[in-house]
Amino acid sequence: MAPGSIEFPGGVWDNARQEQPERYHSTLNRIPSGRFGRPEEVTSVAVFLASEKARWVTGTCIPVDGGQLLSVGK
Question: Which residues span the domain enclosing 45?
Answer without folding.
Answer: 2-71
